[in-house]
Design a protein that fits this description.
272 residues, alpha/beta, four-stranded mixed sheet, 44% helix, binds Salicylyl CoA, lyase, G3253 protein
């Protein structure tokens, strides 16, 4: 992956391979097993927005620095009463906003996991569209051990991925699982030797990038819609509007308004 640095960031690295179509966001706190604090999430969200807005980017990789962890969840050292506390002293659970951002991202987000993906880190990889793991990866929820839980996507998305019984096991016992076990239960997509992780992830990205961007964004919205209620339908509906705005029929209405004349939709077919 060719790398171009974008902007000054404290907790993460952001790289874009222009020409390649890939953006890569790396949580860069390896000494904390890439635990996130409010600033980490704010930076990731900022770069996710940049990647969404950049027409040259078709796929986003989310990963962790080093080989020991993808992400170990919320940084317990900055957890206060009411949430995780940053420099502004405001307690936050802004990782929930990031989960929604990944869910609504109209471009595929790929989790590239080496080492631990636990707690909120496992939930982040679950929110990604596809997860490629190294054979040293370890997955699980530690929340019940440290007095925490995610009763939103962290529970419901997990149950949809691995089934109700397995999701209850993962949350209630708070065990850790190998990459192979995670693959077998449907928590991730693929397991490769650690030294092939980057290469394999790039192969999946390039394969995705060869396909129609509109097909991908509508498919993602459709897969979300069945699960996300009104928010899911809004996302799918927004794609219908996007496509309609590109048609002569959609443009006739706009042009007629601007030309101060009644619209003439008579030439447009009424499909059966
Ligand atoms: C991840 C794990 C299993 C790794 O174990 P190991 O043995 O490889 O490393 P070690 O020595 O535990 O960790 C290395 C350093 O990273 C810090 C540790 O405290 C240690 O620091 P030093 O002693 O060297 O100073 N570290 C690791 N994870 C951290 C964390 N999450 N917060 C703060 N410091 C952390 C092992 O480290 C582990 O079990 N970590 C804790 C995992 C955890 O409980 N995460 C929070 C779950 S709750 C959550 O994420 C959440 C949620 O449930 C709902 C909403 C939002 C967030």
């Amino acid at each position: 992956i060719a790398i171009v640095h974008k902007e000054r960031l404290k907790d993460i690295k952001y790289e874009k391979g222009h020409g390649e179509g890939i953006a890569k966001i790396t949580i860069n706190r390896p000494e904390k097993r890439n635990a996130f604090r409010p600033e980490t999430i704010e930076e990731i969200m900022r770069c996710m927005t940049d990647a969404r807005d950049d027409p040259d980017i078709g796929v986003i990789i989310l990963t962790g620095a080093g080989t020991q962890a993808f992400c170990s969840g919320g940084d317990q050292a900055v957890r206060g009463e009411g949430g995780y506390v940053g420099p502004d002293r405001v307690p936050r659970l802004n990782v929930l906003d990031l989960q929604v951002q990944i869910r609504r991202m109209p471009k595929p987000v790929i989790a590239m996991v080496a080492g631990y993906a636990v707690g909120g880190g496992n939930i982040l990889q679950m929110m990604c569209d596809i997860t490629i793991a190294a054979d040293n990866a370890v997955f699980g929820q530690t929340g019940p051990k440290v007095g925490s839980f995610d009763a939103g996507y962290g529970s419901t998305q997990m149950a949809r991925l691995v089934g109700q019984k397995k999701a209850r096991e993962i949350w209630f016992l708070a065990r850790l699982y190998t990459a192979q076990q995670a693959l077998e239960m449907g928590l991730i997509n693929n397991v490769v030797p650690l030294d092939r992780l980057e290469e394999e992830t790039a192969v999946w990205c390039r394969e995705i990038l060869r396909n129609s961007p509109t097909a991908l964004r509508v498919l993602k919205a459709a897969l979300n819609a069945a699960e996300d209620g009104q928010a899911g339908l809004q996302e799918l509906g927004g794609n219908a509007t996007l496509l309609f705005y590109q048609t002569p029929e959609g443009n006739e209405g706009r042009k007629a308004y601007l030309e101060k004349r009644p619209p003439d939709f008579s030439k447009f077919p009424r499909f059966p």
